[in-house]
Specification:
single chain, Arc Repressor Mutant, subunit A, alpha+beta, 5 helices, 55% helix, 102 residues, three-stranded antiparallel beta sheet
């Protein structure tokens, strides 16, 4: 098989960067807890105190996972008073729509 015939496998550095970025994203969302968080956030905006009710995890661990998802550009936060509300970004919506339609 000639790998050069596939765009994503061409020796073009930009294509390899896209593959590396996609690999990182897939590793991030493949973790079960983060995937569940994305599923919850598909239903709308939530604060950590609401999300914690769906999980058998500490609030700090959930916050850590949300920070990872935020750093990947899948989740955004908005502070209102003492609470921080999380929701999916447009990128997060595209990714979760693709994942959950499989």
């Amino acid at each position: 098989m000639n790998m050069g015939s596939y765009n994503c496998c061409s020796p073009d550095k930009q294509e390899f960067i896209k593959v590396a970025s996609l690999s990182s994203l897939l590793k991030l969302v493949a973790e079960e807890s983060r995937l569940k968080l994305l599923c919850v956030l598909r239903q709308g905006r939530h604060c950590v105190c609401e999300i914690v009710e769906h999980f058998d995890m500490s609030q700090s661990l959930i916050s850590h996972h949300l920070a990872d998802l935020k750093n990947a550009g899948l989740v955004e936060d908005q502070k209102q008073g003492r609470k921080v509300f999380y929701s999916l970004t447009n990128k997060g919506k595209k990714v979760t729509n693709s994942i959950f339609s499989l």
